[in-house]
Amino acid sequence: MRLNHSHAIRKLSRREAAAWPSAIGIRARRGFTLFELLIVLTILTTIVALSWPALERFYLEYRVRQAGQLVQARLAGTRVHAIDTGYDYQFRFEPEGQRFLVLPNDAQALAALQSAASPTASASGTTATVRIPRIAGRLPSTTAHFDSTSTGGSTPQPIPAEWLTGIPDAEQFTSANWSAPLVFHADGSAATARVIIRDKKSRYVVVTVRSMTGGVTVSAIENGGTR
Q: What is the pTM of this model?
């Protein structure tokens, strides 16, 4: 009897041992407990909280850099318009604002271009039309603005409404005060100028115009006061 009892115990132990893997599998299939989910949620929240300042800084720097690249392209385009038309062209910006303009440099040039815009016959008998590039735009980010310490930014002035004729939504631009003009000449040259685009946390880029060549470059992101 004792042998049979011991044998039964050994058999029961083997059965229990064989049942352990299935029991573990059933327990694993029941899913996570509320406590485990709370732990995971806490870890994720902590990771987001620690990384958010870096993500925010990266985004804001990207927006300032994007604004600087847009102004660089528009200034380079102003130079191209001067060369193509043979008239001096100007770039103006709104100090402490976001808007900018690309226009002929003076009323006489604008009037001459407007009269030339009507089709005229050339010596070969074909008609030609001279385009009058006039551009009104704004920075791509609401967090960035033109710094008033930029070249010409300390002497804001209005622009005659007739200069904006033909520009979409021109009435939105006539009420603003604008910087002194940054002028590009028909030979491609310009006066040395610096346009600073800054955000609310004093990150900024400097768009520089070279005097002899009229070339336009944009700096890397800077912090604090201007150079």
A: 0.71
